[in-house]
Amino acid sequence: MTIAPLPSVSVVMPLLNEADHLERAVTAIMEQRYAGELEVILAVGPGCDDTMGVAQRLAAQDVRIVVVENPTGRTPDALNAALAAARHDVVVRVDGHGFLSPGYINTAVRSLEETGAANVGGVMAAVGHSPFEKAVATAMRSRLGVGGAAFHTGGVAGPAPTVYLGVFRRDWLTRVDGYDRRFDRAQDWELNHRIRSAGGVVWFDPALSVEYRPRGTIRSLGKQYRDYGRWRRVVATHHNGTISARYLAPPVALLACAAGLVGGFVWAPLWVVPATYAASVTVGGLVIGRAQGPAVAVRVPAALATMHGSWAWGFLTSRPAHLLAKEKR
User: Domain 9-214's class?
Assistant: First the structure.
């Protein structure tokens, strides 16, 4: 009995200011022990650290690693540049601060073959090192922080609206014309929407896990989630019917708290609205963070409030037409 060879795999990595994590991320790929042919395409933007130097050094050490330039520094452009250089039928997306778990590529390829899906992906396993990073990781893995998104909190295998990063059949990426370069953020969600609209299946497999290093400061976390909210509204405006209660919850909560805070000066009982939110985040954050110790637990409420408030502010202040027109140029 002849065993069919495993499909060849191209790993694509959009990179900007990832010098600190890039070598570890690439090492996690090269240690996958995948029996099929493997290549890694590093698409490097013009950042302010030595990401290009690290990428070139890694490429000099292994002929399977290829470096391409991404002059704009934008993620969708990096992904499309990497795809243009990639040679193989299965495409694995990895970020510069994401670390594949052992056996990830084997499991993903098997999942693609067994399900017939266009894209499979798994869990974004946030892991922090400093107390604040651990607090953010705790918030990102909880329903209180991110709602019921399976790729954050886990769940059963099955079709999903989107997955973290993704392992794609190359022909599906070609069929939908790759990543839409107008979407500076949320390009994964937008791509998966087009795949599903074209009849493809996006499949969540909890056996797939990628370690993710969260932001280390309130400021960087706030910027990240502001951009998430801003671009999620752009996607919702561009693709009708793609918004859900989970995405509307943060802006509704922010508006309710703001109205209650201001209205309380006229009618004091309205202060119960922001007070209830503050109590829920504080108590809930302490509860979900207690297993990490007091130094982490006391920081979880701040992480939760930053994630909720920044996402909501980005969503409410987003200018979809302006942003799409700007990125199109």
Answer: alpha beta
